[in-house]
Amino acid sequence: MYIPAHFAARDQALLQGFIAANAFGLLLSGGGADLIGSHIPFLLEREDGGPGRLVCHLAAANPQAAALDGADVLCVFQGPHGYISPRWYAKKPAVPTWNYMAVHAYGRATVIRDATRLRGIVDRLSKVYEPEEGGWRLDDEPDNFVDAMLRGIVGVEIAISRLEGKFKLSQNRPADIALVAAALRKEGGEDNLRLADAMERATPKR
Known about the structure:
alpha+beta; 6 helices; elongated
């Protein structure tokens, strides 16, 4: 990923937290005409001192699954993003741009077909998104249904070798950050509001 120095995010814990908060990502593998991607939710397993592991699952019928074992992969995670108008800058001339937050995780994939481990992946994913009280639970489903479902998926574990973060939040125009954040709040919308929050957090304190 092209990352000018102004926009580089290097703190590993920050990047891991970003992945956990924006866990629906893009899994890319292959190359050339064989490049393929899948949009899927991930689990991040953190390790002391290391970048950690990503865990997910794919449909067994997904052609990406057939060539994943031992493959080098890229996982892309995106946060809030939005159009930035030059009208919002104090200093002109200026051109339009796009502010955004993204993290790339690189690593090597291992395919998991063991039913017990697959069940654990599905169970853990559901517990992230289901309410603790009254939520859907895998253990509540009939065994024959669960067994059939597990035969239809493969798990994927990715040992992360490198994390890259690009948080493009107008750091190259510090005098305009407050103006742009205010304009985004006026525009409204979830992404614009989250982007404004991120810009204000990234503003150097005086």
